[in-house]
Design goal:
mainly alpha; Hypothetical Protein Yqey, Chain: A, domain1; 2 domains; 7 helices; carbon-nitrogen ligase activity, with glutamine as amido-N-donor
Length: 149
């Protein structure tokens, strides 16, 4: 796992232990375990983008679980999941604003020469490289469809 993130997680874990924050400590351990699992799966230390993809996956899983708990009327569990999401997001880069997303998409459309929905794959490849971890790919896809459609 990326060295800076690993050091930050260890420091946060120590602080959570000293403060007796069991939920935060649990989330830190969960994140460390997920990062370690990915490291073992890939067979090498994670770089920044690989670490970010693990954190992004955890955030998406927690958001999905929170939505399911909300549908089931379990607000207590929903709040726990959302607090974990908030914690995990502290390890992610600042999200792009809607204006920045539109600018990136417009630039990608211009760079790729896209004119129709058939060119969406080319545009998404460029956009994904520029916005990795800083935007929801589903949202990006919707904006690209709107621009090309």
């Amino acid at each position: 796992m990326e060295r800076a993130m690993q050091e930050q997680l260890v420091a946060d874990m120590k602080a959570a232990m000293k403060a007796g924050e069991k939920d935060r400590l649990s989330a830190i351990r969960m994140l460390r375990a997920a990062l370690k699992d990915k490291e073992i799966e890939l067979g090498h230390a994670l770089d920044a983008s690989e670490s970010l993809s693990v954190v992004t996956r955890l955030v998406k899983q927690r958001n999905d679980a929170a939505a399911q708990y909300a549908d089931a009327g379990r607000d207590d569990l929903k709040e726990k999941e959302l607090s974990e999401v908030a914690f995990f997001q502290t390890y992610m880069p600042e999200p792009l604003s809607d204006e920045e997303l539109v600018a990136i998409i417009d630039q990608a459309i211009a760079d790729s020469g896209a004119t129709s929905m058939r060119d969406m794959g080319k545009v998404m490849a460029i956009v994904k490289a520029k916005a990795e971890g800083r935007a929801d790919m589903g949202k990006l896809s919707g904006i690209v469809k709107g621009r090309l459609g």
